[in-house]
Amino acid sequence: MAVTASAGRDHRGVAESLAGLPLGRRLADRVGRTARDEAGTVVPLAVLTAMSTIGTVGAPALWSTPMLLVALAPRLPFLLVAASSTALLPFVVVASARLLVADPFHFDLGRRHGPTMSNAVGRRLPTRLRRLGAAVGPDRPGHRWCCCAALVLRPSSRILAWSGAIGLRPSLVAGLDVGGTVAYVVLVHAGMGLVL
Known about the structure:
The chain is an all-alpha fold and 196 residues long. 86% of the residues lie in helices and 0% in strands. It has helices spanning 2-20, 23-57, 59-62, 66-72, 76-85, 88-100, 103-124, 127-136, 141-153, 157-165, 170-195. The chain is flat and about 45 Å long. The chain starts with a helix and ends with a helix. The model is unreliable at 1-21 (pLDDT under 50).
């Protein structure tokens, strides 16, 4: 009986000593910090999504001002309309800026959520790219090269999240992202120049 009573007191003593520690406070601080960090990433993406939705819904009214339409919603049909009526330099500046503005937030989401984000993004990649990534493996240098190639060919939210999730350097991702985006916008403009 004495052993049981002693064990009961020891258990209560441990609980009382844990209650005195700022463990709960530290956990709450960490959760609060994480929520603030996530809000710093998710809120700008929500604002950009709202802008894009407004541009898409308002497209019939904005058709006469294609660069405003591109600034709100940089979708390919809107880029094509703007490319046909705008000089190269203003088109590249506005379209590239709008396409690039969300990219750091997607990279940050991938960086924060790591393998979870990498697996989720991997399931949504085109089949050939996914097979190539699986063939080179996530722990091999070829996986990083595959991601870099995707960034150059067509930087998108998924590819940027993937690059953050696998730990590519931010400066490398920024350079490839800007280069790929500007090349994409120039090709859209040049393609419309050839068609018209």
